Amino acid sequence: MDDQTPAVSSRPDQDSILRFRGVQAMTGLARSTLYDRVRDGRFPKPVSLGGGRAVGWLRSEVSRWIEDQVAASRAKH
């Protein structure tokens, strides 16, 4: 593995961090919508990736949020 390749864990009990583009790809949310929902408590809070403004989201929390959205949507019908 070179310095450019991110480490990927094969252990299912380890979570991974998604940057904004990964979250956007999973949810389809625009940046402003995502941060509005974080601020309002309707989307998981990002975690600091140390120093500066770099943040990411736990893949498991984003996946759980998606599952909750699907369940809520289906409960309405």
| Residues in β-strands, percent | 5-15%
Low-confidence stretches: 1-10
> How far from one another are the termini?
48 Å
> What shape does the CA trace take?
globular
Computed Rg: 14 Å
* CATH topology name: Recoverin, domain 1
Tell me the strand order in the biggest sheet: 1-3-2
Mean pLDDT: 87
User: What is the domain tally?
Assistant: 1
Q: Report the CATH architecture.
A: Orthogonal Bundle
User: How much helix, percentage-wise, in residues?
Assistant: 40-55%
Number of helices: 3
Structure description:
The protein has 77 residues and is mainly α. It has one domain (17-75): Recoverin, domain 1. Helices cover 45% and strands 10% of the residues. The protein has three helices and three strands. The chain has helices at 20-27, 31-40, 59-75; strands at 17-18, 47-48, 55-58. Strands 1-3-2 form a three-stranded antiparallel sheet. A hairpin with a 6-residue loop joins strand 2 (47-48) and strand 3. It is globular. Mean pLDDT is 87; it is low at 1-10.
